Amino acid sequence: MSIRTVNTQPFNDQKPGTSGLRKAVTVFQQPHYLENFTQSIFNSLEDLQGKTLVLGGDGRYYNRQAIQTILKMAAANSVGRILVGLKGILSTPAASAIIRKNQAYGGIILSASHNPGGINGDFGIKYNISNGGPAPEKVTEAIFAHTKTITQYQILESADINLDHVGSFKLGTMDIEVIDSVIPYLELMESLFDFNLIRNLLSKGDFSICIDSLHAVTGPYAKAIFEGKLGAKTGTVINEVPLEDFGGGHPDPNLVYAKSLVDILFADNAPDFGAASDGDGDRNMILGRNFFVNPSDSLAVITANAHLVKGYKNGLTGVARSMPTSGAVDRVAEKLGINFFETPTGWKFFGNLLDADQATICGEESFGTSSNHIREKDGLWAVLFWLNIVAVRGESVEQIVKSHWQEYGRNFYSRHDYEEVATEGANELVNHIRSQFDTLKGKQFGNYTVNYVDDFSYTDPIDGSVTTNQGIRIIFTDKSRIIFRLSGTGTKGATLRVYLESYEPDVTKQDLDTQKALKELINIAEEIAQIKKFTNREIPTVIT
Ligand code: VG1
Ligand code: CO
Fold first, then answer.
1. Span 440-482, pLDDT tens digits
2. Based on the domain organization, do 399 and 424 belong to the same domain?
């Protein structure tokens, strides 16, 4: 086996976004495209020689080919050892757990998460550091800098490696260990939650659940945990076979793309509990019988009930949420007297807070929550957390959420997505709002008066790094908010996200339909941003 040095030229579009580099599969299939980015990762890691890396992906189309290429390049770049998930599969939270457990130097995760898969879909690659979390901006910037100057990459000439069996072997001087993708993750979950209590709840027969894996990576994990360990009946996990194109679906666990589950939970005789996960298993949607749990509320309920759960009963040091996430959890933090942080969108901003033990639980409005057990979002963790709470309290999901609102007030919250609109119009929309920054302050819109307007920026309290332009905030005097942001994960055109929030302390008014409660703010958002004109759309593609 010999190492081949291949001459190459930079691609000018390899800047990582909210969560790694995401592009159409056809872009990744261009000669040298994946190799250039992989070599740029290796080039940005100074002392990689002899170190251990973790490698795996969400199983989407091109996962297998990419894994083979990366293994051969790692061997040529003097990596000491690689732990690869069986068949090249690792959910994002499992990869994070395995990096931490093995004290690996870092990991490469192949996923485009909620973006559709298949030959006409998307592919993605991201680098995680030794804490198990997404590379912080200074690392992604260094990788990006290398992509702009790369002239060659190294790859070992060898046959493909068989990843279909657990075992160890050599590739050149590098050790490869093919490891079980599920067991380390399952063991970690068992250490955090009361599996006996949940087993009691699920096996008695009077509490039924439905877990929808949307033909993505969580299928084998959910089968092993819910049907295997926790005694739920066979068939509890649906769409459980991971497919390279996710069965043609969109593995995004929201009310539109997880319709299969929504239909089941909103039918007559619906199960008591339902959940869906995204492509790479780091996000989750929680449903009760005929009841949708807003992800921002889910974060608040998890935080407020953490003392009931084995792994968290000693208390939380703090909680962090992304800026667009509703303020529901802020009220819980205040009551518990724990730290509270507001960060930009993207899990990489939580890593420092978790490492410094300033926060225990973190969450985003986009159905992502997790804790200091790993450094990624964790979809099945949230499902188990909810089941553990339900098992302890003996109440329905709806009762638990409503009593939360009663205690803390309800933050009415919704996100309107305008997906794949023209980039030019989206940029004009942002500029149009920015041009009103000076005139909006103090302006009255019906019942609402603008308190202030800004572009969110964040100074990391641990390392002092500053991140600017993380979303436009229009904040009203009663703390209601409208936020505008452009997505950093899409691959076609631009995706505009509009986040709307108001607060209702009066219990008699908390049962209102969310869109009705937010109607006035929705109209104000249109008035300020001229969404219809700039996006050329009458309505959002997804409403959460
Ligand atoms: C979206 C979500 C964000 C999440 C990110 C990655 O980003 O809004 O909260 O962290 O996806 O999640 P954006 O830039 O499109 O709004 V995942 O599950 O794709 O790794
Ligand atoms: Co994801």
1. 999 999 989 999 999 999 999 999 999 999 999 999 998 999 9
2. no
Q: Which residues pair with 3 in a beta bridge?
A: 156
> H helices then E strands: how many in the chain?
19, 27
318 lines ligand 1 (CB under 6 A): no
Ligand 1, atom nearest to 280 Cα: 18
Neighbours of 336 (CB within 10 A): 17
Rounded mean pLDDT of 163-189? 95
Residue 17: per-residue pLDDT? 87
Show Cβ contacts of residue 205 under 8 Å, excluding neighbours closer than 6 positions: none
| Domain containing residue 517: CATH number | 3.30.310.50
Nearest CA to ligand 1 atom 8: 366
Residue 488, pLDDT score:
79
Q: Report the number of distinct structural domains present in the chain.
A: 3
- Give pLDDT, residue 432: 95
Q: How far apart are CA 148 and CA 320, in angstroms?
A: 34
Q: What are the catalytic residues?
A: 113
Is any atom of ligand 1 closer than 6 Å to the C-beta of 281?
Answer: no
> What is the CA(90)–ligand 2 centre distance, in A?
12
Residue 470 Cβ contacting ligand 1 at under 6 Å: no
Q: Is 282 in the pocket of ligand 1 (CB under 6 A)?
A: yes
- Return the percentage of the chain with pLDDT > 90, whole number: 90
